[in-house]
Amino acid sequence: MRLYLIPFCALILTATLGACSDGETPQADAGAINPEATAEPSPEPAPFYVGQWAADPVWCTDQTDGFPITITPTAFEGRENICEMTEIETTPEGGATARLTCRSEGETIVEPISFAQAGEQIAILWPERGTEATLFSRCE
């Protein structure tokens, strides 16, 4: 009797699985055969100025005497303020300019800012302040 039980169970299982099928042959997922066929286009890389930066690399880890800034594609964040970046444009030299709208302690300041690549660093210039560009190193 036991010998007949295994083929009988296999027959029941096959019939049950067949009843669940809609009669169509399953198609292979195109992405499983060729992952590039269904892959989304890769996003644009972030602009060179996006990241966490410090005028002194020590500030990336020890914020006793200074602190890093964080730049996102649309914001410039310092210790006590967050500035919205708008009107972002690339320059012919490969840099970028933007308009900052900063709010801190109840005040709003609107001013331009410029970013330029300087090897592994970036040079940041606030043109209306009449100062030299400041070099910032990327924090790891």
UniProtKB/TrEMBL annotation:
<feature type="signal peptide">
    <location>
        <begin position="1"/>
        <end position="19"/>
    </location>
</feature>
<feature type="region of interest" description="Disordered">
    <location>
        <begin position="24"/>
        <end position="44"/>
    </location>
</feature>
<feature type="domain" description="Ig-like">
    <location>
        <begin position="73"/>
        <end position="140"/>
    </location>
</feature>
<protein>
    <recommendedName>
        <fullName>Ig-like domain-containing protein</fullName>
    </recommendedName>
</protein>
<keyword id="KW-0732">Signal</keyword>
<dbReference type="InterPro" id="IPR007110">
    <property type="entry name" value="Ig-like_dom"/>
</dbReference>
